[in-house]
Structures are given as structure tokens and as C-alpha cells.
Amino acid sequence: MSRDDHYVKKCPECGGINLFWNKDKGEIICRDCGLVVEEKMVEFGQEWREFDGDDADKRRRTGAPITYTQYDKGLGTEIGRKADLYGLDGKGKSKFFRLRKWQYRISTAIERNLKLALAELKRVSSFLKIPKSVEEEAARIYTLAVQRGLVRGRSMESVVAGALYAACRRHEVPRTLDELSESSGIEKKEVGRTYRFITRELQISIMPSNPADYIPRFSSALKLTPETQSKSIEIIEQAQIKELTSGRGPTGIAAAGLYVAALINGEKRTQREVADVAGVTEVTIRNRYKELLDKLDLEKEIKKTKKRKKGEE
DNA sequence: AAGACGAAAGTGGTTGA
DNA sequence: TCAACAACTTTCGTCTT
Question: By three-state DSSP, how is residue A27 classified?
Fold first, then answer.
């Protein structure tokens, strides 16, 4: 598994192929649109299995997280090469062996943990119908988290949920915290907390999620037509232009946009129904909805469809 | 009777001193 | 570390369809 296989060759934003891999910062940037395609690239091969023998001339990876963002490639202390023994006195040697024993213990513990965690991750992501690529990203994030010892004091499940949430966000196929919470059995608060914690600790930067990303899922859950779906995305885009979206919860905006779009296309859903699939309350939908009506001239359109409906009868 | 509306009080998280 | 603050929720009474 070479590292390159995992990473997109095309910019997901503009489709450009003019990607620039900045090895020092460990990120891939699209030169056409400036999107940071991948950051904090890490080798995710299975090398952690390999440091048992002394013969290996390969890089050891135990314990320390290896990111390309740090000047010394992570904590970077590599224990285990015979060559390192030269010039050590007795004390030095015993220290060497002690450290290596530790390294061994840590590594097997990590391995065990990973096995369990990846099973859990698989379960949750299949429950939520999360794409394979996102699942893999989550696995990477989780692996990093264990290697850094971020799981200590937290349940494995909650870290898995947090990693998944982060992966979904990064791939712009967001799931709500409620959904993660329901499928993993971890409290919503806790999922959010670990999410914030691991993204901060691993320095994974995540764009604020776009309300439009939620539309396809909500829309199909409500059995709305594709026309309504694209209408709602249109509405949300307009809302973003008028800066109605900043600081607001994206799910609320998505819900309100969908609600209005359904109204306009004469596929009315109740606020309750929309609120349920979006995981917000009717009140929030009402507030966003009101703002949308105020700032975007949507009332005309709604009246239009109402009249049209009357005429049909 | 169900849905939509809006006021008021409460919750959890962020921010800035 | 604490208080102010914004967004969102819960609850509840009233209006509309």
C-alpha cells in the first residue's frame, strides 16, 4: 500500500490536476482554486507490525505519531537498531533494552486496541452508510489518535465516533452529531467533545460544514423530488450570499431551505417532519425560515404555487 | 384537531477580560 | 477562571387551516 494510492489526484473542488504537494507542511494544495486537498499526510502502512526484529533497517514507527508537519517527524525517537548500541556503556545498554521493552508493549497494546476499534468503526459506518473512502479516513484518524495516546481516559467507542464525525466533515458528507450518537451509543455531547479534542490534538483543520452538504440526505429521507432538492440548494446559496448563514447551525439552515423549497414546489412537508430528519427543532426551522422569507423574496413564489394549486382544483 | 407561530426561560459552548 | 453572549432547545399558549 503506497501512500500515493490513497490520495486524490484531482482537486475535488474544481477538478483541476494542478496539485502541489508541499512535503514540508505535509499538505496537498490545488493551485487552481487554493483548496487544501489533504493535510497532515501520514503514512498509514502497517509498519507497526514490523518492529519486532532487530534486523529491520526500516524506520520504526512505534508510539510516536509520524507527521510530516513536525521538524523531527513526530516524537521520532527510534529505539531498536543494534547500531545504536555503539558507544553505550552498561547503563546505557540497560536503558536501551528497557526502552525497547516499553516500545514493544506499547505497540502490542496499540495493535489490540486497533483491532477492536476498527471493528467498531466498521459497524457504525455501515449503519450510517458511510462511503468506504471516508471510513478509511476515519481509520487513519483513529490510528493517529491511539498512537498519540489520546484514547486514554476516553472510551474507545467515543473516539471512534469522533474520528468518524471528523472524517465525514472533511469529505463533505456530514452526518449530524445525533446520527453518530445514535449509531455509536455515545452521548451527543461526548461525541462532540472527543471530536473537538482529537481534531485539536491532531491539528486536523476542518472547514465549517456547508448546509448544502446535508441536503441530499435529508431530501431523500423526506422523499422529496430532485427539483425540490436543487431548489433548496439554490436557496441556500442565496442565503450564503446574503450572509444569513454565518454563525448558524448548518443543519438548521439546511432544514429551513428544504422546508421552503418543498413549499414552493408544492410538496409540503410539516415543520415537524423536516425537523425530525434534520435533528433540529421546529422552532429553529421557523427562525431560519422567517429569515429566509425576509431577506430573500420567496413569498411571491410560495403564493404563486398556492394559486396554481387552487387553479388545479 | 393538527399544524404553524412566537414568547420566555433554560442549556451548553465560545469568547474576551 | 469567570461572566457575558449567541445559538439552539424546551415548553407552552394562541392563532390558522
Answer: strand
Does A236 share its domain with A278?
A: yes
In a 3-state reduction of DSSP, which class is residue A84?
Answer: helix
Q: Does A46 reside within a domain?
A: no
Q: How far, in Å, is the CA of A287 from the C1' of nucleotide C15?
A: 18
Strand B footprint at Cβ < 7 Å? Answer: A 189, 192-193, 196, 268, 270-272, 282-283, 286, 289-290
Phi, psi of A309 (to 5 degrees): -65, -45
Q: What is the mean pLDDT of chain A?
A: 74
- Nucleotide C2 C1' to residue A203 CA (A): 28
Does residue A274 contact residue A232 with C-beta atoms inside 8 Å?
A: no
- Closest nucleotide to A281 by C1' from CA: C9
Distances (CA, A) of A201 to A65, A204, A281: 11, 8, 32
In the predicted model, what is the mean pLDDT of residues A246-252?
87
Query: Residue A156: inside a domain, yes or no?
Result: yes
Show the cell assigned to A57: 533497517
Q: Which nucleotide is nearest to A284 (CA to C1')?
A: C8
Domain assignment present for A178: yes
* Domain membership flag for residue A206: no
Minimal CA–CA distance to A142: which of A123, A174, A127, A120? A120
pLDDT of A82 higher than 80 = no
Segment among A77-81, A141-145, A260-264 with least mean pLDDT = A77-81
Instruction: Give the side-chain half-sphere CA count within 13 A for A53.
Output: 6
Q: Which residues of A19-50 are buried (b: 16+ CB within 10 A; e: fewer)?
A: beeeeeebbbbbeeeebebbbbbbebeeebee
